Structure formats: structure tokens, C-alpha cells
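Deliverable D4.2, example record:
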Amino acid sequence: MRSNDDDDAIPDEDASEVTKLFNERLQAWKHACGYLEDYIQAQEKMQNAHGKEYEKVVKAVSNSHYETAKTLKGSVLPIFTRLHAEIKNKNKELTKGAGKSSKAVDKARAVTQKHIELLGQNTASFDSTGGKSDATNDPYVLQRGIYHRLNKQIQEENNNKRDMLSVQSAFSSFEAHVLNTIQQGLVHLVQVLNQQSDNQKTLYTDTLTTAQQIAPDFEWNGFVQRNNHILIDPNAPDRNVRSISFPNQDHKATQPMIAGSLERKGKMLKKYETGYYVVSQSKFLHEFKTDDDFQRDPVPENSLYLPDCAIGALDGTKFNVKGKDVSKGKLGNKVSMTHELQFKAHTAQDAAKWWEIIRLCAGQLTEERPDVSEPNSPVDGGKRVGSNLSQVEQPSRTGTMETQASGTGTGESMEAREAREAAEDRQAAATGATTGATTSAGQHA
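Output generated by the structure prediction step:
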């Protein structure tokens, strides 16, 4: 039996081949049933003709033939007529059920093939253009898209396989039923015709004997043996995405320079949220919700083209990257604004790895450091901000730390500057209040 052990992404097989085979099988049984119906109808006509002819000679013999014709039409023929209708209904059931799942497999394979060809085009252009690509056609993104569609395709293939196995198992009992019904019809036919003539009895008894010698599974076993290369092996394992290979699967453009989880500071709530980030060979920094290719289409949430970005200085586990999100297409890229994204790695060692690879790809390196987190308490925070942010430490171009007056540091971010100015205002207000209270006390004295 044929086994689904082909590890090609698009198997070289027709998903509807088994359905077509069973349709041919049903068509053969339908013809066999039709031939028997035609034969019984011919017997009926012959008995009527004999009755008409014998009517001129022997009335009793004529009536016997008329009764035989009536019995053939009313008792024997309906058995095969009902069986014929059952075979037709089985054919419709196969076409609507298994045929529909076969079409779904063909459709899913066409979608996968289209994206594999798209990956081939972009990996070829990757080599010819020196790795330059847009975000939507990044070979890494296209490869993950193929995995997503390949997973859907395999689900359809496995569903179709299970449907075919169910139909295949049911066919054995159905054919036994067909054969048993034919045997019952032949029994009735022989009984009727045996009453008509002893000579005919021998003929029809031989037909019955031959038919009864056929075992219920004889035809089915012969059918399975003859079509062993087409029918599905019930013991064949389901296909698995991880064992599939496709063109350019391991191309260097699909392999990330670095990938893993980082924390990024949100724009609204200013809280760090964990995401899955990748620096591709095309020098894009992609952000994904997760590293799962199967549950949802792995389209990047954000994509930064690092040669157009600037990376700040590394501060422990934190670093900043400033650039535009280019993941929304040409129109979205035109209206996209530059943002400064603040990242935090799990360890200082991880941060150093990420920072070094991004630095090699980035178009600009600055000395800006990540913002200092604001304190939770406004009162304590005011004291600390007023005392500690009056001066900003900033690395000089030579790498040494320089101390400048507050508000003059080029590495100070907008959020830190606003926090520092607010703290200074609160401190000035507190100092003014204290001075006013002292002056009032002296006048009163």
C-alpha cells in the first residue's frame, strides 16, 4: 500500500486519486447491478411473451408465465433497483465528503507552492543585491510564512487521509452488503424461475451456486491486492512539519544573525514587555509576539532596517535603538515616524551580544544611554531627582565619563529631561516656601 513517507513539501501525488479509484469501483458495481436489472426485465418480457404465445395453446401454461412475469417485476426487480439507488447514493456521499477534502488539499498545496516560489525569488535576489531586501519579502519572514502555510497544508492532508481511511474501511462492509444483496436477489429469481421450468431450474441453480461460492471479502481482497500501490496504508504515520524539506530551506539568508527574547519599554505605560526579536541577514531587526510559526502567521510587529538606524551606548543590560518601523509597506513607511526603542536583555552578557551585532549593522553609533527609571514615591523621588539629576554623566567621544551641568548633556533623553526639570521646580518651590516662612517668623518677632 502507498505510504505518506514523502518528505517533500509538495508531494508528487494527486490528492483525489483514491477518491477517483473508489468512484470507478462504485461505477463498476452500479453497472453490474444495472446488468442484472436489465436481465430480470428481459426475463419479465420473455415470460409475458411466452404467456401470450402459450395462451393460444395451453391456458394453464400461459397463466404460469404471466404469474412468473408479475413475480419478477414485483418481488425480484425491486431488490436490484434499491441496490442500484444505494450505490448511487454512496457515490454522491463519496464525492461530497472525500472529494471536498481532496480539493482542500490541492488548494492548500497551491498556496504553499506559491510562497515557496516567492522565497526562491527573494533568496536569489538576496545573493544578487548583496542582501538588500524589504521587510515583507525578507527571506527569513518568507521562510516562517512557508512553515505556517505548510502546517495548514499538512493538516488538510492528514484530514483527507483520515477521511480516505474511513471511506476505505467502510467500502469493505459496503461491498459485502452489495454482494449479499445480489445473492438474495438471485435467490428470489431462481425460486421464481424454478417454478416455471425444470430445465430452467438447472440453469439458474448453477448461477446461484456460483454466486454463493463467492466469499463476502473475496472481491474486496482481490481489489486491495490489485490496487495495493494506490490505496493508503493504515499503518503509515502522519506527516510532520519538522521532517519536511523545501528549496532554500537552509539558505544563509534565512538564518538569523541572532534571535531570542528581549524586553522593550512600552510607549504608553512605560513598562517593559517581553517579545521575540531577530536580526536577519538582511540587517532587519524584527519584533514578533512569539517564536511559534504554527499558531499564527509570523508577521513582524515591527521591523527596523538597521543601516538606517542609530544605536546608543550599552548600559548594563539596557541599550537604545532609534529608527523607523518599515513593516507596514511603502505607504506606511512614508508616514512612519522615528522612534527611540529602549531594550533590556536578561543578562549583561546577552545584552553585549545583541548590542555588538546591532552595532555592526547599524548606520550610526551614538553615546546616548538608556533613561534612568523614575522612582515610585513623588516625595522621595523629588529629593533624589533634585540632588542626583542636577548633573548628568555622559561619556565623552574618547570614552571617558564627563560631568556637565544639567540640561546641557547631549545624551539626556526627553523623558529624563522633563523629570529633572519637574524635580527642580518642586525643589525651588519648597525652598521658596521655607524662605517665606522664615521671613514671616522674623517680622512677627
